[in-house]
Amino acid sequence: MADWAAGQFAAGFETVKFRAMSDPDTTVDLLDHVVGRLPAGGRFIIDAVQACASSPWPVEAAVRVGRHAAALGARWYEEPCQADDVAGFARVRAAVDVPISGVESNGTVREFAELIAAGGVDIVQPDVTFVGGPRAFSRVAELAREASIDCVPHVWGSAVTFAANLHTVFAEPSVELFEFCTLPNPLRDALRVEPVDFADGTIGAPTAPGLGVQLTEEIERRFAFRPGGGHVIR
C-alpha cells in the first residue's frame, strides 16, 4: 500500500485515498504504516467503507479510527457508518476532529438532504450514476453550498461513470475535487474515445462529443461476457 501511494504522488496526484481493513485495529495499524511513509506534503484520505458493510463497525470503533486518522492529518474520513445510519454519522462527526464524508451509495437527493440536516457530514459524495443523473447531482451540490459544506463526486468503476461525473462537475463551480480511480481497468480505458487530460494534479475538460464513451463491436468481442466472472474487493 505504501509503494502504491508513492506511485500516485509520483504520477502527479496530491492526495491519495485508501480503504480501511475489515476491523478497526488493523485499520489503525494500516494508517500508522502507510502515513509514516508518505512523501512530504502528500495528503491522504481513509475510506472506512462502512456504508455498504454487512456488519458495520460500532460507532465507538468508528470514532476511534477517526480520531487516529485526525491525529495523523487525514484530509477526510469517508463513510464511517452504514449508509442509512444518519444518527451514527452525526455522532462520529461530533466526536472527531477530521472532516466526515458520505454517502456514495445514496440514490436520492432526499437522503443527502437528511444527512446534511442532521449534521452528519462535512463533504457530500454524490455519484451522478447513483443519485439520479446530472440534475439530481446539481441539487445535492446546491444543498451542500447552502450548508457551507463541500461536494466531491464519487467516481468508481466504469468509463460511463467516470465520464458522466466529469461532465457534470465541470458545470458545478463549487466542486473543486474529482475522484480518479487508477486501478487497472482495461474495459474502462478501451471505452474512452479520448485519453483523460490529467497533468500536475489537475484534470481538464473532455472535448469529444457526447460523454466521450463508445462501445464498438471490437470492444464487445474483446470483453465478451464470461459467466462466473466479476470483480471482488477483499
UniProtKB/TrEMBL annotation:
Residue limits of the Mandelate racemase/muconate lactonizing enzyme C-terminal domain? Answer: 1-99
Q: Does the keyword Magnesium apply?
A: yes
- InterPro entries named in the record: Enolase-like_C_sf (IPR036849), Enolase_C-like (IPR029065), Mandelate_racemase_C (IPR013342), RHMD-like (IPR046945)
* Cross-referenced PANTHER family: ENOLASE SUPERFAMILY, MANDELATE RACEMASE (PTHR13794), MITOCHONDRIAL ENOLASE SUPERFAMILY MEMBER 1 (PTHR13794:SF58)
Pfam families hit by this protein: MR_MLE_C
- Keyword tags: Magnesium, Metal-binding
Organism of origin is Agromyces marinus
Which cofactor(s) does the record list?
Mg(2+)
- According to UniProt, the name of this protein is Mandelate racemase/muconate lactonizing enzyme C-terminal domain-containing protein
